[in-house]
Predict the 3D structure of the following.
Amino acid sequence: MGVDQNSIWNLHNKLPSFPTLNKNEQTEVLIVGGGITGLLTAYELINIGLKVMVIDASTLCSGTTGRTTAKISAQHGILYDSIIQSSGVEQARQYYTAAMDGKDRILNILEELKMDIDIEQKDSVIYTEYDENIQAIEDEFRAYDTLNIPGKYTETTELPVETKAAVTMFHQAQFDPLLYIKQIIDVSIKQGLEVYEHTQAIDIEHGNEIKVTTDKGHEIHCTYVVQATHFPFFDPLGMFTTRLIPERSFIYAGKNENPHLKGMHLSNDTPARSIRTAKINNEHAILIGGEGYVVGKNKSSADPYKQLKQTAYTLFPDHTFISQWSAQDYNTMDSIPYIGRLKNKYENIFVATGFKKWGMTTSATAAVLIKDLIQKRQNPNENLFSPSRFELTSSVPTFVKQNSHVATQLIKGKVSDEGKSIDELKANDATTLFKKGKKLGVYKDEQEVVHVVDTTCTHLGCEVEWNTYDLTWDCPCHGSRYTYTGKVIEGPAKKHLKKEEL
Ligand SMILES: Cc1cc2nc3c(=O)[nH]c(=O)nc-3n(C[C@H](O)[C@H](O)[C@H](O)COP(=O)(O)OP(=O)(O)OC[C@H]3O[C@@H](n4cnc5c(N)ncnc54)[C@H](O)[C@@H]3O)c2cc1C
């Protein structure tokens, strides 16, 4: 338990370290955020001869990229039927083409760099164990038919569970994301990429050129900024604060004799399960993901890791435990990512976010799209992913629901506490209480030392809630997360929670 749970990828890969920026700097393109999105974009831009710098608030790939399931697939859940229903066949076809182009780009880079790593070709399968979800699978398969997506409909799968229906998308893939990205970093550095870690971008000033200020008070002057920060840290037009939905999920990994799964699997049931195998250092592993929830709306009291472990033992009874961890991604109002330029005078500032747990293909698509936008070249995906699109038909209900959720949280959090006294707290437990008009979050650690923070999220003032499984304070409004001592881990918040005393 705790925030330092290592993913299977982190356990087996060591990425290079980089210094902290300690002076003012100048570059052509500043990429803020060194996850897969930032690093693939850096690779594309260096290749067209631009001077590129990447800064990361923490270390490279310490965000969601280091904690993903890493299926490289255009099967982004049950999606194509709903895009056809809301936006038409052409939009759905464009989305599929963009996702497949992302997958192909990952494979092309592998060849370009003659990487000595294994990207396993697999089919992607979505299945259900319940009668009431058969229709959704049938509709999705009909969408594949309409869009000529190579695939098949079956009732059974190769998994040792009784399924009712399944839709397969052929010719997808899976990899070890950090093994792949390490090589991208090595090559990009040789080609002149500059990288600074533990360097957080705080603000952007926009004049004749762009000036980005960092947490240590330095300035980076540049012509273009790419916000690859997962949640864009600079949102002058309020485009993302109201339109991104944070979703958190858990992953369990075990060692197993070769599990021989031909496909990567995802259930369309509640709770969902994402299943894949992995080959790491000639050993075989299984990954089971699931128990996802929209941050701030976790109603289940069951321990997500125990639930995943149970699934792992049902599917792979002979495995042994390796590690478990959690991660977060953002969804958008219409389930289509926001990739492209900001509006009006901010048009040299780019974003790529809202990948809804499908960032492997989408980050590669984003990198090419941003490269084309900087070069002022046409790209067929510009309108599909435009961050300033107004998703009138499909997303108004989601917009209203999400923002009334935020409003409710803002008020609810201010007036309610956990009702547990400090004396009742056991080790590794937390509570909230009011003192002198302030709401405090109190966590008792394993040594029974008490850590107290002001629970007001430093992003927009919602009240953070205790996350029992990761031992973190999480904001139910926009997904900012803090350690129990109040240090920002992820999300839009830039400042730590205020430390308090009892
Ligand atoms: C449980 C789970 C399973 C998933 N499984 C899959 C899958 O099987 N297939 C798939 O395609 N996708 C999957 N995804 C989605 C995918 O992992 C993500 O979409 C992708 O990793 C996002 O990459 P990123 O580079 O945009 O963000 P991140 O990897 O989060 O990188 C953002 C970086 O920005 C830095 N940063 C943030 N703010 C600042 C700042 N102000 N200044 C400087 N740096 C900053 C952070 O430190 C971080 O390193 C999954 C996601 C989850 C949560």
The chain has ten helices and 26 strands. The radius of gyration is 22 Å. The first strand starts at residue 25 and ends at 26.
